[in-house]
Amino acid sequence: xxxxxxxxxxxxxxxxxxxxxxxxxxxxxxxxxxxxxxxxxxxxxxxxxxxxxxxxxxxxxxxxxxxxxxxxxxxxxxxxxxxxxxxxxxxxxxxxxxxxxxxxxxxxxxxxxxxxxxxxxxxxxxxxxxxxxxxxxxxxxxxxxxxxxxxxxxxxxxxxxxxxxxxxxxxxxxxxxxxxxxxxxxxxxxxxxxxxxxxxxxxxxxxxxxxxxxxxxxxxxxxxxxxxxxxxxxxxxxxxxxxxxxxxxxxxxxxxxxxxxxxxxxxx
Length: 268
Hints:
The chain has 268 residues and is of the alpha+beta class. 48% of the residues lie in helices and 8% in strands.
């Protein structure tokens, strides 16, 4: 007898109003921190190869500035992609993104003015754009609401990059933005390696089942991975390696199917 099929999981839903607020708050915190930076700090290197802090901030402006460009284009007939599709489409655009970020930085010597203008325009967009508006995103047409979920990944990850580049800056991470970022990247792992043999726990925000193999039904799962949200987003985006996280005791992994090294990063 064939084993029963596994029910298809419903896509995670997000509170659109909370995501709107979280994105604006996270960007505002970055802008406020950037306004206090010295020219030397703006020219400091980051962990992104060849990027200065100025380049990083210019790129961060595009996380929201892209919305304005999409709204200026004809609206697609329907949404064909969801937020969960976005992490898998970023690698192909990586070289162009780096070049574009440097061009923006070079073209806007006053990066604070760029961030302020971007924030003001985005606030106007939030006030006039419906969640259901379809945007012609590079990953495929998706709703404004879904695209904003992907913006939490961009903003949280790059805020962490900024804090790493300038120790002591400590730009806060908005809890709602961090939660959405964590959940989206956790769901991306489950989509990349579907199955039920391994439980990945990222308290307090996400728990997902993944990896083919015997499905866990009750009690303590035989294969468990647990880490904190910041370590998870660094693993998922290639900021740190699986081995380094294990060596530093930032990840606990038990069971023969709890090795996620071959599945990471999710976003190259």
